[in-house]
Design goal:
The complex is a heterodimer of chains A (about 270) and B (about 300).
Chain A (H helix, E strand, L loop, with lengths): L1 E9 L5 E10 L4 E5 L6 H8 L7 E6 L2 E2 L8 H5 L2 E5 L10 H11 L4 H14 L15 H13 L5 E5 L7 H16 L3 E6 L2 H7 L1 E7 L2 E8 L10 H18 L18
Helix pairs in contact in A: 3-4, 3-5, 4-5, 4-8, 5-6, 6-8
Chain B lengths: L2 H17 L1 H36 L4 E5 L5 H12 L4 E7 L1 H11 L4 H9 L7 E6 L5 H9 L4 E5 L2 H42 L2 H9 L4 H39 L2 H5 L9 H29 L5
Helix pairs in contact in B: 1-9, 2-7, 2-9, 2-11, 7-11, 9-11
Classes of the chains: A alpha/beta (about 270), B alpha+beta (about 300).
Chain lengths: ~270, ~300
């Protein structure tokens, strides 16, 4: 859950980039955050990632009070969040498998579990043939799917997607949002920052518009899925796939399953 | 941290050495050149010091015993003289030996010597001594003069002063040069590791966003710097071994030059090899590892 109360953020020069924002995003919500460049969207994400601190107000995310969060606890807090960036931010010297496995290494997940979980997530984003590829060998859309897989592999409570469709083809943009919607259907809160109004109009849902650091619109808008000529069944299929993620998440004793992970063996 | 995580991070560090081989090679070269620069300077200074030590041993003082003292009593004085801290070598000179010394110095005055040969009892007993530290010559002479039956002490004050001043000047110059070289090396090494880490700042940034702790991020960089430093140390050892041995061989080939101070004044490589290997590898590993870790700090503030 994201709960902001009268939050303001200012950088060194003193100009307030976020002004007295109050916002509540409940567990399991999907919300678009829209706004022009310089509106304060990126600062809002930095605030949620504890990269910047609030000048005033209350910031609570996933049960953490960010104003009181000590520096040494930031890493643990960030593990409750999956982040997807516009520029993918994959580690260039790691393969697709290693990039995704890395976040599980960070939480010190058992090796056996990593060997099962990572190939599974790679399958879900449709990159099973690219597990051993390096980021530079992938297209923009594929890299973003890896970023998505990385964001959801640790089953975070909240996924923050910062313009995840900004560097991919328009058709792929819809797929990316479909995947995010699917993840959301499984109970994960998703916060997606975008300036692509077509996407917001197509999918609809809770939309928060930020302008000059303040929320000027926060409501649910109707989606219009006929307008872009996308096959509605694709969303359904995607939801089915994502439902499987949840199923695996619940399998605490999944280690003994006969899933063949050998072809994804770590290099 | 779990052992499996530590093993993973160590393997990542080693893998990163290959993945970032271009920047790694630059760091390796800078570390190696810095180690060689300081290493050869230390060896040069050590050799000069060793030569000064050899020259120092050439000092000689003469202690004259009072005329009325009998030989038996004069010989007993050796115990008192040897008790002094700064005495390196001591040799008793009897009246007969004193006469021989006199004769050797007066070969052109044969007739005078013949007269002395019959009556040389006036020659005093003496001790020839060599001291350990010529800078303490005055204190040593004063201490000797306090011993009973000592008449006069002849000491090479000029020789001692020249050597003491030479050592002082050399010590100032060598310390200054070493400090300057160490500073330059640290600046160069820090810049090269900083450049190496800077090229991977995004990587560090990503790790921070996915919830990696600072130590989790630092360990691979530490390992990378550590092994790069060790490799630089090993390479520097081989270059020093080859370079130093060749240099010593070339210098000692000119025998006449070393007759004055003796070839023993130069340090043989086999006498210093353990120190050279240990110093190079430890310094390389330390500078590589610490340099990498410090350079990551700036990028961890995310």
């Amino acid at each position: 859950m994201v709960d902001l109360k009268n939050v303001s953020v200012a950088y060194n020069k003193g100009t307030e980039v976020i002004r007295n924002i109050s916002l509540c995003i409940n567990d399991g919500d999907f919300a678009f955050i829209v706004g022009a460049s310089g509106a304060g969207k990126s600062t809002l994400i930095k605030l949620l990632l504890k990269e910047v601190n609030a000048l005033s107000g209350e910031v609570k995310v996933n049960g953490y009070d960010l104003n009181k969060l000590k520096k040494r606890r930031i890493a643990k807090y960030r593990r409750t969040i999956g982040v997807v960036f516009q520029d993918f931010r994959l580690i260039p010297t790691m393969t697709v498998y290693e990039n995704i496995a890395f976040v599980m290494r960070v939480i010190e997940a058992p090796r056996k579990y990593i060997k099962q979980r990572v190939p599974y997530v790679i399958n879900l984003v449709g990159l099973q043939d690219k597990a051993k590829s390096y980021p530079h060998e992938l297209s923009g859309g594929e890299q973003q799917r890896v970023a998505l897989a990385r964001a959801l592999v640790n089953d975070p409570k909240l996924i923050i997607a910062d313009e995840p469709t900004g560097n991919v083809d328009p058709e792929l943009s819809y797929e990316i949002v479909e995947l995010l919607k699917g993840i959301n259907q499984c109970g994960t809160t998703v916060l997606m920052v975008t300036h692509e109004h077509d996407l917001v109009r197509y999918f609809g849902g809770r939309t928060i518009n930020i302008n000059q650091g303040t929320v000027i619109f926060d409501d649910i808008i109707e989606g219009n899925k006929n307008s872009m000529g996308i096959d509605d069944n694709s969303e359904e299929n995607s939801y089915d796939e994502i439902a499987e993620i949840k199923e695996l998440n619940n399998l605490e004793d999944a280690f003994d399953e006969s899933y063949d992970a050998e072809e994804f063996d770590e290099v | 941290m779990k052992f499996s995580s530590l093993r993973y991070l160590v393997s990542q560090g080693i893998k990163n050495m290959w993945n970032n081989r271009v920047m790694g090679l630059a760091s390796f070269c800078v570390l190696m050149v810095s180690l060689l620069l300081i290493g050869f300077s230390v060896l040069f200074i050590a050799n000069i010091n060793s030569l000064i030590n050899v020259i120092e041993t050439k000092n000689e003082m003469v202690i004259y015993i009072k005329e009325e003292v009998k030989e038996e009593d004069a010989r007993k004085m050796q115990v008192s003289i040897e008790k002094l801290d700064n005495i390196n070598e001591i040799k008793f000179v009897s009246k007969e030996e004193a006469l021989d010394i006199l004769y050797n110095g007066m070969k052109n005055y044969q007739s005078l010597y013949e007269e002395l040969e019959n009556d040389y009892d006036f020659l005093p007993f003496s001790y020839n001594i060599k001291i350990k530290d010529v800078s303490k010559i005055t204190e040593t002479v004063e201490a000797i003069q306090k011993i009973e039956n000592v008449d006069t002490v002849y000491a090479p004050y000029d020789f001692a002063n020249v050597l003491t001043n030479l050592r002082k000047i050399f010590s100032i110059i060598s310390t200054t040069v070493l400090i300057a070289l160490a500073t330059v090396s640290i600046v160069i090494i820090s810049n090269s590791t900083r450049a190496s880490v800077f090229s991977r700042r995004k990587e560090i940034n990503i790790m921070k966003y996915v919830g990696a702790t600072d130590s989790f991020i630092r360990i691979p960089f530490f390992i990378e710097g550590f092994f790069t430093g060790i490799l630089a140390g090993i390479t520097a050892t081989f270059i020093t071994w080859f370079g130093y041995k060749s240099m010593i061989e070339a210098l000692t080939a000119e025998v006449s030059m070393w007759n004055i101070i003796g070839v023993g004044g130069l340090l043989a490589y086999q006498d210093i090899d353990v120190i050279v290997v240990t110093s190079y590898i430890l310094t390389g590993a330390f500078l590589g590892a610490i340099g990498s870790v410090i350079s990551t700090t700036k990028h961890l503030k995310v």
